[in-house]
Every structure is written in C-alpha cells, then in structure tokens.
C-alpha cells in the first residue's frame, strides 16, 4: 500500500480532507507523515489530533539545499513513497522534484495554465474571468507546469474580492484533491456532486 506524506505550510484544510477521505476508505494508501516547513502551521495540530506522525523541517534561515536534505531525510524515515503538496509554500529544486517524479502532486488555486505563482485570486479578478477554480497536477521542475490530473471550476462573481473567491475555490479544492489522489494511486475516484462546482479528472 502506498505510503503518503503530506507537506504543508499553513492551515492544512486540504490535508484535513485528504486525511478524512483516507479514513473513509476512499484513498488506496496510508498517510505516514505530515511535514511542515513552519513551526506554527495550524495543520500540524489537526494532524496530531488525527493521530498522524508530524515533523517540522524549518525552512527559515537555511539554504535550500540544507532544507531539502532535511525534508528528504524525514520522508525516507517515514517510508513515504508518494508526496502531496497541500498549501506548501516553498519552491522545490529541480533535483528534489526529479527525485519524486511521478510521485508528487500539488494543488494550485487556479485553472492552470492560467495564473501561476502567487496572488492567484487577485490575478483572476484583475483578468475579469467568469470562472476560476483549482488544479491538481504532478510536480515537475516547471513551476505550476506539470501534467494535470484534475480540475474543478467555480464561478467568479462581479462583487468577488480575493477572499470571497478564495473561499469558493477552497470548497472545490476539498472535493478535488482526494478524488485526484485516489485516481493517481489506482483507486476509484469519488466525490460529492455539489451545485456550482464542476469537477473533472483526466
Ligand atoms: C490552498 O488554497 C492551495 O491551493 C494554495 O494554498 C492554500 C492552502 O490552504 N496553494 C498554493 O497557493 C500553492 N502555490 P490549506 O493550508 O488550507 O490547504
């Protein structure tokens, strides 16, 4: 069975939905580690509550090579063979990404290839698009550029602020990530059909 590690930097709401889906038998794998690059990440407490081993590898004050060595060691010690980036806000080096090629997913809060990088919801509002959403993709050295596993689409409203749009996109993320992960691990992807969210897996 696949041993999954989830990498976070913050709240961990996507991490929590993956844990929940795994508990419900919807993910063919086990979660062996939640790792944060930030000591105070809210997701760490949620993971601990769920009884999942956690680790902190601080990125602050370290070179990228030193940081990534720490992450790689923690992943190996946990026996992880698949990695989910879930609100993990550090860019990983080409060496690290290549080592996990085909075994590392990321979720990004836009319909890639539109709006890569940061301040995604500002970008979407600025562009006056009528829909936005989220993308789960394999991680490759090209930032936010790897093969797409699935996307979920939500409306963008004229009165949206970055915060209101972010909240709508996050609901879609919570449907998409567990379904996309299940598919990548060879399972039967399942998700609730919800009004205003169109989800599609490739
Ligand atoms: C999510 O919206 C995710 O798409 C985004 O960070 C948020 C994390 O929320 N990721 C990125 O912007 C990656 N560049 P969470 O900690 O509650 O899952």
From TrEMBL:
N(1)-(5-phospho-beta-D-ribosyl)glycinamide binds at residues 12-14. Residues 3-181 form the Formyl transferase N-terminal domain. Its EC number is 2.1.2.2. It is an enzyme of class 2 (transferase). It catalyses: N(1)-(5-phospho-beta-D-ribosyl)glycinamide + (6R)-10-formyltetrahydrofolate = N(2)-formyl-N(1)-(5-phospho-beta-D-ribosyl)glycinamide + (6S)-5,6,7,8-tetrahydrofolate + H(+). (6R)-10-formyltetrahydrofolate binds at residues 64, 106. It comes from the Bacteria. GO terms for molecular function: phosphoribosylglycinamide formyltransferase activity. It holds the Pfam family Formyl_trans_N. InterPro entries: Formyl_transf_N, Formyl_transf_N_sf, GART. PANTHER family: PHOSPHORIBOSYLGLYCINAMIDE FORMYLTRANSFERASE. This is Phosphoribosylglycinamide formyltransferase.
């Amino acid at each position: 069975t696949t041993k999954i590690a989830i990498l976070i930097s913050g709240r961990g709401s996507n991490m929590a939905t993956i844990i929940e889906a795994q508990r419900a038998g919807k993910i063919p794998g086990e979660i062996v580690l939640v790792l944060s690059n930030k000591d105070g990440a809210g997701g760490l407490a949620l993971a601990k509550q769920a009884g999942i081993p956690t680790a902190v590898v601080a990125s602050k004050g370290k070179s990228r090579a030193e940081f990534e060595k720490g992450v790689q060691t923690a992943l190996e010690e946990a026996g992880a063979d698949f990695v989910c980036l879930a609100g993990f806000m550090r860019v990983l080096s080409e060496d690290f990404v290549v080592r996990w090629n085909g075994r590392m997913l990321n979720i990004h809060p836009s319909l890639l290839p539109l709006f890569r990088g940061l301040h995604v919801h500002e970008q979407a509002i600025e562009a006056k698009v009528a829909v936005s959403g989220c993308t789960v993709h394999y991680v490759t050295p090209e930032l936010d550029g790897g093969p797409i596993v699935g996307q979920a689409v939500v409306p963008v409203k004229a009165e949206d602020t970055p915060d209101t749009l972010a909240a709508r996109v996050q609901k879609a993320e919570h449907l998409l990530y567990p379904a996309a992960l299940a598919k990548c691990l060879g399972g039967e992807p399942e998700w609730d059909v919800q009004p205003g969210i169109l989800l599609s897996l490739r």
